Structures are given as C-alpha cells and as structure tokens.
Amino acid sequence: MTLFPFRHQLELSSIFNLLLLDRFFGHRARHLVLKFLGLGLILLSLIMLTAWLSSVWLALASLLPYFTRFMPLLVGLTTIALSLWFATYLLEAYFRFHYFANLEGPKGEKQASISFDVGRFLFRALEPDLVVAWLNSDLGGDWLERIGITWEERELFLDARRQKPVSTPLEFKSLVDLATLLGALVDGNPDFATWLLKFEVKRAEATGAARWIEWQRQTGRDDERWWTREKLGRIPGLAKDWAYGGTPLLDEYSLDLLLVPETKPSSLATLWYRAPVEEVETILVRTREANALVVGRAGGALEVAYELALLIRAGRIFPELEFKHPKLLRTAILLSRFKERQGLEAELVKIFNEVIKSGNIILVIDDLPSFITQASAMGVKLDQLLDPYLVSNRVQVLALAELAAYHRVIEPNPFLAERFEAVQIPDLDATAAVERLIETVEQIESKNRRRQIFTYQALVTLVDLGEQFSGQESATSQSLDFLLELEPWAARNGLATIDKAAVLKFATGKLNVPLGIITPEERDKLLNLEKLLHERVVGQDQAIVAIANALRRSRSGIRNLKRPIGSFLFLGPTGVGKTETAKTLADVFFGGEDKLLRLDMSEYHGPDALARLIGAGQSGEPGVLAKLLRNSPYGALLLDEFEKTEPEVLNLFLQILDEGFFSDMRGERVNARNIIFIATSNAGAPLIWEMVKAGQHLIESEQTIIDSLIKQGIFKPELLNRFDGVIFFNPLNAESSLAVGKLLLGRLAARLKEKGVILAVSDSLVKVVVTRGFDEQFGARPIARFIQDNLEEKIAIALVAGQIKSGQEVTFSDNLNLIIKP
Amino acid sequence: MAFWRLLKSYLGWHYGLALVAWWRIYRDLLWFVYNFFSLPIIFRTLLAPWRRLGESYPKGFSPEVVAETIVINTLMRLVGVVFRLGFLIFALPVIVIVFLLGLVALIFWLAAPIALPIIFLIGFYLTFLA
C-alpha cells in the first residue's frame, strides 16, 4: 500500500506542476495576498500623493518635513509591495494558463485528461482508501451537502469503514473529472454504494452532484478571465447603429434581444443548442428566403434566439450578421391594438417596410403558428401578406414554433413551408435539464447568502415535476417556476436544506395532488384497491386488476411521467359495469364520484367535433376538453362511447395518450399527464356475445375481437396500441346478475335507511328482482330500472301517504307487494 | 526538489507559451477596442447618410424636387461624415494607447524575472538600510 494513491501517475500528468503550486501557494492564499497587497499599494500611493501635494500646495506645506524624512521608507515599502504583488500575479497567471489549457484541451475540445479538481483531491489524499479520503476532503464535504447527507451520518459511516480499510482498485486513466471519480468510487465500493442508497442517492445522483460542485469551481475560476474574446465581446460597442435606420414603429412592438439580461452566457445551454444555432446562422446569411423556423418544445425555441443574440454580441458570427439586432416581435401587443383587419394589415406592412429600410434587423417572431391563427381570426391572411417580404433578400425572419402547432398550422400551408426552413431542436435530456436549474440555483443561493441550500435530488425532483405538470410552458420553465417559488416557501417554513421531500411537500400543497411520502391511509387504499373496487363492481377481475396496477405504478413514482397516469379502453356490452368501474375509481382514489370528468363522445360528431373539443380559432371559444383538463388537471376522465366520434378526434387522442398533452387552437399546451383516461365502447359487443354463448373464454378470444374491430374500421391499430390496456368486460351471466341484484338492492336499502326506513333484503327478493328485471342484452341496467319502477315507487307512494313511519321495517312479497311490518 | 521543478516549469512557460498567450490577449484586446468603437463599420460607411435618413427621388420629371432631394441627401451624408470623423478623433488615440500599453506589457513581461527581484532588493534597501 502506498501512502499517496496515484502519486506516480500524477507526477506524469500535465497538471502536476499546478498541484505543486497549489500546495506551496494555493489559489485562495494567492487571492488573499493579491487583495492585501493591492490595498496596501492604494494606501501607499495615497500617502505619496499627499506628499506631492504638500510640496505644491501651501496649505499642506507644514507637513512637508515629515514626508521628506520618511520618503525613502515610503518608496521602499511601495517597491516591495509592488514587486511582491507582481510576482504573485505572475504565479496566478501561470496557474490560470495551465488550468484552462488543461480544461479546454488541444483545439478547444475537452480532452480526456485528468481534471484539476480530481488531481487536487488525489494529490492531497493521505489515505489509500479513497472513499475515506473523499469524505474527508473539502470537495467531499461540499458534495455531501449537495446530496443532503449530514455530518453525523458521515461520521457513522467513516467509523465503520475505518475498521476495515479498503484500498480501492481504480483505473487512473478513467478519472477524468469528479463525476467519473465518483462513478468509479460507487462502482468499486459496494458498501459505499449501499450506504448512499440509504439516502436515496443512486449512482446518477452521486455523479450529478459531483459534476455540480466541479462546475461551480470552474465557473468561479472562469469569471476571473475578463480578457477572453467571449467576455470582451459582450461589452456593447459604440456607434454601431449610425449607418442603419431607426425602427421607431417596430420598437413599440418589440424587444431587442441584444439588450435583455437573458443574453448572458450559460455554458450548459450554449453546448446544448450549438448545432441548431449554427444551422439558423447558415440559413440567415442566405441571399434570399433567409427565413429560419426553429421548431421545438415550448421555450426551447426561444433559447435558440437568445443564443444567437449571444453570438452576435460576442462577435463570433458570420460577418453578414455582425451588426444585426434580433428583435422579438411581441405579437400579443400588436394583436391587441387592432380590432379590424385593415389596421393590422397596414401596421404589419409598415413594420416590414421599416425592417427593410433599417437594414440591421433580424425579426424574431415567437410562436408563429398562433400568430397566424389569431391573425386569421381577424381575417388577415398572414402567409399571403408576408410572402413578398419573406421571398425578398432584404428581410431576415427567425420564427419560432412549438412542435405540435408546427405540424398543425405551418406544415399543411404550402406558402409557409416553402418560405421557412425548419430547424428542429432536441429536447433537453434529464441531466441537461437539471444542469439548467443549477444555474438558477447558484443565483438564488448567492443572493440569500446560502441560508438555504438545494440538494441535487431536489433538482432532479423539480425536473420530474416540470415534466409531469407543465402546461403551456416547457417542462424546463415549469421547473424553473417551481424553483423560484420554492425559495420563499422554504424561508417561511424555516427550512435550511431544500431536499426532495421538501420539494414534494411544496408541490403537494401547490398542486393539490398527492406526492411525496405515502400516508398510511393512502397506503391502505392502494394495497386494497381491488377489494375496494369490487365492493361496487361485480366480477370483471381483469379490468379491476389492470386499473389497480396502473394507480399503484403511478403513485410509487415508477410510471412514465411523460404520459397520462393510465389509459384504458373498456370493451363490452352495455350494462356490465364499465361506467360503474370508472365511477368507483374516482370515488375511491380521487375522493368522490364528482371527481370523474365525463365526456359523451357520441356528442362530438360532425365537422366541428374537433373544434368543440379543443377550441376554435375563429370564435375564440375555448374547447370543452381543454377547459375540462385545465380546471381539473388531476383525476379520471371517462370517454363514453368512444368509437362514435370523428376520426380526427380519435387522432387527437392518439397524441394525448402518447405524449400526455395537446395544444388547443391558440397553440397553448394542455397537460393531461395526471389523468387516467377510460374510454368505453360497446363496439364488438355482438361478437363478444356470440363467443360467450359459444362457450368460449373471453380472454382467449380477445385477439379475434380486436382484429374484427380493426377490420371493420372502428379503431385503428395504432390507437389501440396507445392504450395501456384494452380490457374486456364479460356479459353478465345468471350468477353475476344475482350479485348485481343484491348490490343494487343493498344500495336502495342504504338510501332508505337515511330516511329512517329499514328495507329487509332477502335472497328470495333478490331472485325475484333479477329473474323479472334481468335482460341479457342490456346487462344490469334493466335490473336497476326494474327496482326503480317496482320497488322504489311503491315505497315512495307509501311514504307520501304516511303509511310508513320512521324506524319501520318494510319488505316485499314474492309477487312484489309492499309489506310494512308493524 | 519540487521547488526546482516548479521554477523550471515556470520559467519555461514564462518565456515560451506565455508569450503566445500574450500575443493572443493583445490581439483580442485590440480586436475589442477596434470593435468597441465600431471602426470596421465606421470606415465602410464613412460617406453614408446619417441613420439612413433621406428622401427618395420622385418618379416624374420635376427638376425642383430632384434638386431639393439632392440637397437634402447630400446634407444627410455630410452630417454622417461629420459625426463619424468626430468620433474617430476620439477613438483613434484610445486604440493607439492600448496598442502601446500592450507593447509595454510585453517588455515588462520579458524583464520581469530579473526586474522583480531587483526592484524588491531596492525596496528592501530603501526600507531597512537607507
């Protein structure tokens, strides 16, 4: 065992000299010395200035003798301070040069050599057991804080670990940065990994938090480099616009992206959007039809515009775009100022003429599809109005669109599809999304002086919540909104560490959706869901198991957050409990039958069916489905008689079931990710009947029924595939109809009991009711009607006539005569 | 041992790669002042009308209007030239100063490993021995 692990390899690496310097005269010490000497120099120069003044200014002449006496001392001290300051500065320059050279690698690409922070850790690690060394290091301390593990827990682990120290076999070459170091430590030490799991820290969180603290240190060091081209380029120049025309009219409606604070470099986003920004650049420098359309998830497209502005400011852009101002047209203001077609058209033409005349504008139009739809609601055909401008070589337009709206509005329009070249941007993946949040967290924490600390897991949870609950906004901006509200919330609640539990608690309160730790009461419900459902639904085991499993998956957090909680298609004849199952579900799980949202899809028929569901652009009337889901984003939605609606509506559900959201006519996103969709249909019922009659088991003939539905063109196979489960409801047989009869009579008895009347339900009564009321074709419904018509009515008459008194018991004879027991 | 290794590496850098870095920073700073004062665009549009102001020529034949337009457009160009020349008088000295400062910094850099100990010793002498 060597005392210094990897010492030999470190000596060969390019950063060894930096580590030596760090040992002799560390970064922090250098900064202290520079600050101290700097202050001293300022003080000394002030004194010398006074000395000089006293020789020329009579009022101070009396001081002159003192100064003359001490002059050699003053000069001596100044030269000492000056030489020391410069010497330290040279060392700092030496450090920075090598640090960033190592970081950037040859030709600006990140090379796979060991990072300074890993080297520094290994260089200082005095133990062969790297896990112990890590937990004892200053970096390790910061890391523990980020994953929310306390000092006491650390001590407990270290005590246990020191009993049997382990020399970790690690591959030196793979230790590129702190994240890979942590990954290797977790992989190589099962006990360490298990200990971390106790705090819900998986490998991804361990490495993510390590990347965070390294990134923090890197940006800190990077901020000291004011002389790089990127930083200098961000200082706006003078006299840039003297050769270009002004745009007073456009300025009323727009925002100059070069001047907004969002145009700040954020290394993470820049990396993510580099490819699409370059593509946009190439399109915009074309000699004609220089119009780019950035298509992506909401918010993402705007980032590309900001990144472009950033490049322009840094001067790292094609010369053709160098002095351009990307101006974001605020279409909402424009639309709100005009009520009439002519006014809007004239204003738009004026704006575009101004853009041509000024010569240095890139017109950025956010959410082009909804601008088009809203303008067309006023009768303005934007595509035809703007076409001459879009073709010309004197206008550059950068339009942004959300993916779904792009497919709906732009793609089918030949004019627009021709004039704009689309650039797709990738969705942020989970790690990148967390890294976006980190930037904001850094700002929040430095603003509140680290009174509240966010853990890495809290950010992962925020990203998940954003994914799950984002409506109109992108998932990232939804997470950011949560993040910004979290901090004051935590301050009010006196929380110092904002961890996953805190985030979930905050979100539960805000969204009124059960998240976080499962309460005992809820756990009971979840585990006994089948039993609870069976209390109201007879038979249909397959359906009930499927639904119960979906709910448990959702609540345990292992479901796919980018889709609805669950989606089921209930197939079967009428009156067998399809609707009843949905109602029971709403009652048991969402706390009341009224939580069941319901749409009778047979009403959505005809050419305006889709418009009635998602809203119509012309009338501005919001759609039924959009309104329903906006008002209650968490619950169950029953789609009755699903097959009876239009094919285009079914296509809409194709998207909803797949992605968990849709865009309404205004292009605003409606979230459906916290909904259980239950579509019912009695298509295929005759076939089900036949099979059951022929004595076949339904489970075995499912495929035959589905095939026949597809063949008849009732459902498309892709739609059926989107459902989490296509569930068959058995027709009622003699046995189950008895159970249904008993259930329905029991319910009547319960209702009567509230009125103080006791109904005695005997087996013979059930039998009579079922034999006379049951109809094979219509299932349980006729039984309910029979009870209503024959039993309820007679009791009602007796109640009205005052024949039944409170507390009296009643029953029925075999030929259903009301018997009132004395 | 470590100290000598560090010193050797430092001096190698000081007279090697650091000079390359000096050149890069010098170049970027000059690029910055050059662009800060928008010189490329000022030179390219020295004679252009001030903020693209001006009038377009009429379509029909009307000598007075054409003459009027010529006068106005020339005036706008003159205004542009005056502003830009005035700006250059202010900007060029700054660029020259940055240019010279960079050279001074280079000379200082080259001399520093010898000059700094000497300055220190002089300071030491003045403070404690004189």
Topology diagram in text:
The complex is a heterodimer of chains A (822) and B (130).
Chain A: H1 7-12, H2 16-24, H3 27-56, H4 64-104, H5 116-124, H6 130-136, H7 138-146, H8 151-163, H9 178-188, H10 190-197, H11 203-222, H12 229-233, H13 248-253, E1 254-256, H14 267-284, E2 291-296, H15 300-314, E3 325-329, H16 331-337, H17 341-358, E4 361-365, H18 368-377, H19 382-391, E5 396-402, H20 403-410, H21 414-419, E6 421-424, H22 430-447, E7 453-454, H23 456-469, H24 475-492, E8 497-498, H25 500-511, H26 520-527, H27 529-534, H28 541-556, E9 566-571, H29 578-590, E10 596-600, H30 609-614, H31 624-631, E11 635-640, H32 647-659, E12 661-663, E13 669-671, E14 675-681, H33 685-693, H34 698-711, H35 717-722, E15 725-728, H36 734-754, E16 758-759, H37 763-773, H38 781-800, E17 809-812, E18 818-820
Parallel strand pairs in A: 2-5, 2-6, 3-4, 4-5, 7-8, 9-14, 9-15, 10-11, 11-14, 16-17
Antiparallel strand pairs in A: 1-3, 12-13, 17-18
Helix pairs in contact in A: 2-5, 3-4, 6-7, 7-11, 9-11, 14-15, 18-20, 22-23, 22-24, 23-24, 23-25, 24-25, 36-37, 36-38, 37-38
Chain B: H1 2-14, H2 17-36, H3 39-44, H4 63-129
Helix pairs in contact in B: 2-4
Sheet having the most strands of chain A: 6 strands, mixed
Unreliably modeled segments of chain B: none
Instruction: Sketch the topology of chain B as an H/E string, one letter per element.
Output: HHHH
Shape of chain A: globular
Word description of this protein:
- The complex is a heterodimer of chains A (822) and B (130).
- Chain A is an alpha/beta fold and 822 residues long.
- Chain A is built from 38 helices and 18 strands.
- In chain A, helix 9 (178-188) packs antiparallel against helix 11 and helix 22 (430-447) packs parallel to helix 24 (475-492).
- The longest helix of chain A is centred in the N-terminal third of the chain and has 41 residues, at 64-104.
- The mean pLDDT of chain A is 84.
- In chain B, 82% of the residues lie in helices and 0% in strands.
- Chain B has helices at residues 2-14, 17-36, 39-44, 63-129.
- The relative contact order of chain B is 0.11.
- The chains are: A alpha/beta (822), B mainly alpha (130).
- Chains A and B meet through helix 2, helix 4 and helix 12 of A and helix 1, helix 2, helix 3 and helix 4 of B.
